[in-house]
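ok new one. same drill as before - structure tokens go in, u give me an amino acid for every spot. 125 of them this time. try not to just spam alanines like last time pls lmao
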């Protein structure tokens, strides 16, 4: 399965989602703020990033833009996770460099489909 970096500052969300994805065979890397997410991503090069957009230190929009601007991480798929569910929020995340977008609370079957789709798309690049 995949190595997934989850960048989420809410401990309950981080714990719940990481445990559910680990049970499905994914290796999880965890970060609690945007800067830590960038640092872990550069050091570990995960297969996919699940990125909360409302983060301390650096928000998700900054993190996505920074990772997509770096040749080392530019092709890593990023799925934005946010409670912001307006159409312009989705577009803003995509404009920042996210490859996909999902709303909170997370519906695991839908998120699993997006993870699989984005992993396959990245493998075909």
């Amino acid at each position: 399965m995949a190595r997934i970096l989850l960048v989420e500052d809410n401990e309950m969300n981080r714990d719940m989602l990481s445990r559910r994805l680990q049970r499905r065979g994914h290796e999880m890397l965890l970060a609690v703020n945007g800067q830590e997410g960038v640092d872990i991503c550069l050091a570990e090069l995960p297969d996919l990033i699940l990125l909360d957009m409302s983060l301390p230190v650096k928000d998700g929009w900054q993190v996505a833009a920074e990772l997509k601007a770096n040749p080392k991480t530019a092709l890593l798929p990023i799925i934005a996770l946010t409670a912001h569910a307006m159409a312009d929020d989705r577009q803003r995340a995509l404009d920042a460099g996210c490859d996909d977008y999902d709303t909170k609370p997370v519906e695991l079957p839908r998120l699993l489909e997006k993870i699989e789709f984005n992993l396959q798309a990245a493998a075909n690049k």
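The helical segments are 11-23, 34-44, 60-69, 87-96, 108-123. and btw The chain has a mean pLDDT of 94.
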